[in-house]
Amino acid sequence: MVRSFGLAGLALVLALMSGPAPRAAAFEQSESGDPMILPVDPAPLVVETAGGERRFSIEVADDDRERSAGLMFRTEMNDAHGMLFVFEQTRRLAFWMKNTPMPLDLVFIGGNGRVVGILRGEPYSTAPLAPEAPARFVLELKAGTAEKAGIADGDRVRHPRIDKVAGAG
To answer: What proportions of the chain, in percent to the nearest 5, are helix, strand and coil?
Structure first.
């Protein structure tokens, strides 16, 4: 799949793929092959789809180390579980699947709490995954879960970390 990145996006992709980037410290920590397991957040994440509400238990990755390691080295995950990546600002985001043995759905969520893109990540791929629209959050789910749950662009996503930015209404 070919994507247009613009200069800022191209710089980000090159930084992610070219050696000691901000992610390097977390990769060194993660190269052991041990997955990072974060505590399950007490609040469920809810996606309002055309077919109704879909609830997920989530781990929250909200600092550089956690975001860099993410779901690396995980070999399985429940369909009703995911990881929410929280960023400080809405911007063009690019993810990859380095050291990630299971395929994932990446649900990109804007600062307004709405889904702005859903992409499939293939195991171990270093190809950048970046939607056209800027995002503030990314929800990683087991591959196929987004489609099974009926998650689509424009759906509203609720969780205290998202609502704090998007507003409760």
So the answer is: 20, 30, 45
- In 3D space, the residue among 93, 97, 90 whose CA is nearest the CA of residue 114 turns out to be 90
CB contact set of 58 (below 8 Å; sequence gap of 6+):
40, 41, 44, 45, 81, 82, 83, 84, 139, 159
DSSP 143: T
Q: Are 146 and 104 in contact (CB under 8 A)?
A: no
Amino acid at 10: L
Express each pLDDT in 90-100 by its tens digit: 999 999 999 99
pLDDT above 90 covers a percentage of the chain that reads 79
Spatial distance between the Cα atoms of 51 and 48, rounded to a whole number of angstroms: 8
Domain boundaries, the chain: 6-166
Query: What is the dotted CATH code of the domain comprising 6-166?
Result: 2.60.120.1140
Q: What is the torsion angle, in degrees rounded to the nearest 10, for the CA atoms of residue 43, residue 139, residue 161 and residue 45?
A: -30
Structure tokens at 156: 């509203």
CB-based contact 83:108 (threshold 8 Å): no
CA distance 73 to 134: 27
125 three-class SS: coil
Secondary element (H or E) of residue 24: helix 24-30
